[in-house]
């Protein structure tokens, strides 16, 4: 149901795995990410550099889902469709500053805004800022965690804003999204790497 010409992954981290499936629904792909070190990881994979992370297992998994075995073709198609890797900051009215781009048809974001914002008010504002990057009638795909206060990466503990399902849906409505479809699944985490109580998947359309 979600298709378009121009696709933006907002807050990519150092990863490219979500692009493997997105390539089937879009013609052009852009990644944006706050941390320069993460942007460099994406660019290393994009440019086939020797020290780039090996995404072959994820590629094989997507190929299996698509019922074929040519995982290298998936990587090639993503590299061909990837246009640019931009800096971003959800706290800015133009999150892609200093760059200015035409609104995108589809935006995908995962585990980003709850790690960026320290309050519900900031979260609502960040969703509004991100919504400015989507054209009218365009689609947003969002994945995140519920009621998580921290997560651990390489032994370092990071803050996460506790969110309830209604917090996320209310923020989307305030930002002008409609046709909000939410799916919640999973149980509590182990409490070691994080303390989330569930994960949510949302698709919605900008009015």
Automatic annotation (TrEMBL):
The keyword Cell division does not apply. CDD domains: AdoMet_MTases. GO terms for biological process: methylation. GO terms for molecular function: N-methyltransferase activity. GO terms for cellular component: cytosol. InterPro entries: NNMT_TEMT_trans, SAM-dep_methyltransferase, SAM-dependent_MTases_sf. Keywords: Methyltransferase, S-adenosyl-L-methionine, Transferase. The keyword S-adenosyl-L-methionine applies. Belongs to the class I-like SAM-binding methyltransferase superfamily. NNMT/PNMT/TEMT family. NCBIfam families: GntF_guanitoxin (NF041360). This is Nicotinamide N-methyltransferase. The lineage of its organism: Eukaryota, Metazoa, Spiralia, Lophotrochozoa, Annelida.
